[in-house]
Protein backbone atom coordinates (compact mmCIF):
# COMPACT_ATOMS: atom_id res chain seq x y z
CA UNK A 1 0.00 0.00 0.00
CA UNK A 2 1.33 3.42 -0.98
CA UNK A 3 1.81 6.05 1.68
CA UNK A 4 -0.01 9.33 1.02
CA UNK A 5 2.13 11.98 -0.59
CA UNK A 6 2.79 15.20 1.29
CA UNK A 7 1.37 18.44 -0.10
CA UNK A 8 3.92 20.69 -1.72
CA UNK A 9 4.20 24.40 -1.10
CA UNK A 10 4.10 26.82 -3.97
CA UNK A 11 7.11 29.19 -4.10
CA UNK A 12 4.62 32.07 -4.46
CA UNK A 13 2.65 31.33 -1.30
CA UNK A 14 3.36 33.04 2.00
CA UNK A 15 5.39 35.93 0.61
CA UNK A 16 4.61 39.41 1.86
CA UNK A 17 3.80 42.07 -0.72
CA UNK A 18 3.20 45.78 -0.24
CA UNK A 19 0.79 46.70 -3.02
CA UNK A 20 -2.06 49.02 -3.82
CA UNK A 21 -5.50 48.00 -2.49
CA UNK A 22 -6.57 45.88 -5.46
CA UNK A 23 -3.25 44.88 -6.97
CA UNK A 24 -2.49 41.63 -8.68
CA UNK A 25 -0.15 39.83 -6.30
CA UNK A 26 1.16 37.25 -8.73
CA UNK A 27 0.44 35.31 -11.86
CA UNK A 28 1.51 31.69 -12.23
CA UNK A 29 0.94 29.44 -15.21
CA UNK A 30 -1.14 26.61 -13.83
CA UNK A 31 -1.25 23.94 -16.53
CA UNK A 32 1.89 23.10 -18.44
CA UNK A 33 0.61 20.06 -20.34
CA UNK A 34 1.29 20.99 -23.97
CA UNK A 35 -1.17 18.42 -25.33
CA UNK A 36 -4.05 20.08 -23.49
CA UNK A 37 -6.23 22.43 -25.58
CA UNK A 38 -5.50 26.08 -24.87
CA UNK A 39 -9.16 26.72 -23.97
CA UNK A 40 -8.71 24.47 -20.93
CA UNK A 41 -5.48 26.02 -19.69
CA UNK A 42 -5.80 28.21 -16.62
CA UNK A 43 -3.75 30.98 -15.11
CA UNK A 44 -3.61 31.49 -11.35
CA UNK A 45 -4.15 35.10 -10.43
CA UNK A 46 -3.90 36.15 -6.79
CA UNK A 47 -5.75 39.34 -5.91
CA UNK A 48 -5.28 41.12 -2.60
CA UNK A 49 -8.61 41.35 -0.73
CA UNK A 50 -8.51 44.94 0.47
CA UNK A 51 -11.43 46.97 -0.92
CA UNK A 52 -12.63 44.24 -3.30
CA UNK A 53 -16.37 43.60 -3.68
CA UNK A 54 -16.54 39.87 -4.32
CA UNK A 55 -19.97 40.16 -5.98
CA UNK A 56 -18.52 42.52 -8.58
CA UNK A 57 -15.54 40.19 -9.12
CA UNK A 58 -17.83 37.19 -9.70
CA UNK A 59 -20.04 39.21 -12.07
CA UNK A 60 -17.02 40.26 -14.16
CA UNK A 61 -15.71 36.67 -14.27
CA UNK A 62 -19.11 35.36 -15.38
CA UNK A 63 -19.33 37.98 -18.13
CA UNK A 64 -15.78 37.45 -19.40
CA UNK A 65 -15.35 33.69 -19.05
CA UNK A 66 -18.85 32.21 -18.67
CA UNK A 67 -20.14 29.80 -16.03
CA UNK A 68 -17.77 26.92 -15.27
CA UNK A 69 -14.80 28.50 -17.06
CA UNK A 70 -13.17 29.99 -13.97
CA UNK A 71 -12.83 29.23 -10.28
CA UNK A 72 -12.54 31.63 -7.37
CA UNK A 73 -11.34 30.78 -3.88
CA UNK A 74 -10.79 33.06 -0.89
CA UNK A 75 -8.19 32.33 1.77
CA UNK A 76 -5.64 34.21 3.84
CA UNK A 77 -7.02 37.62 2.76
CA UNK A 78 -6.50 36.90 -0.93
CA UNK A 79 -8.69 35.81 -3.82
CA UNK A 80 -7.24 32.91 -5.83
CA UNK A 81 -8.67 33.15 -9.31
CA UNK A 82 -8.10 30.41 -11.91
CA UNK A 83 -8.97 31.88 -15.30
CA UNK A 84 -8.21 31.33 -19.01
CA UNK A 85 -6.47 34.74 -19.06
CA UNK A 86 -5.59 37.09 -16.22
CA UNK A 87 -7.67 40.16 -15.46
CA UNK A 88 -5.85 43.45 -16.02
CA UNK A 89 -5.52 46.03 -13.27
CA UNK A 90 -8.16 48.31 -14.83
CA UNK A 91 -10.70 45.46 -14.78
CA UNK A 92 -9.88 44.61 -11.16
CA UNK A 93 -10.27 48.27 -10.18
CA UNK A 94 -13.93 47.97 -11.29
CA UNK A 95 -14.36 45.54 -8.37
CA UNK A 96 -13.31 48.05 -5.73
CA UNK A 97 -15.70 48.99 -2.94
CA UNK A 98 -16.60 52.65 -3.24
CA UNK A 99 -16.79 54.52 0.05
CA UNK A 100 -19.03 57.58 0.17
CA UNK A 101 -18.46 60.30 2.79
Q: Describe it for me?
A:
The chain has 101 residues and is α+β, with helices and mostly antiparallel strands. It has a domain at 24-30 and 41-93. Helix content is 17%, strand content 23%. The chain contains two helices and four strands. The chain has helices at residues 54-65, 89-93; strands spanning 24-29, 43-48, 71-75, 78-83. A hairpin with a 2-residue loop joins strand 3 (71-75) and strand 4. The chain is globular.
Mean pLDDT across every amino acid position: 74
Oligomer state of the chains in this structure: single chain
Secondary-structure class: alpha+beta
Give the low-pLDDT segments: 2-38
User: What is the strand arrangement across the widest sheet?
Assistant: 1-2-4-3
Alpha-carbon distance between the two ends: 63 Å
- What percent strand? 15-25%
Shape: globular
Task: Assign a percent range to the helix content.
Answer: 10-25%
Instruction: State Rg.
Output: 15 Å
Biggest beta sheet attributes: 4 strands, antiparallel
Q: Number of DSSP strands?
A: 4
- The arrangement of helices and strands along the chain is EEHEEH
Q: Tally the helices: what do you get?
A: 2
Question: What features would you highlight for this structure?
Answer:
101 residues; disordered N terminus
What topology emerges from the helices and strands here?
Elements: E1 24-29, E2 43-48, H1 54-65, E3 71-75, E4 78-83, H2 89-93
Antiparallel strand pairs: 1-2, 2-4, 3-4
Region (Disordered): 1-21
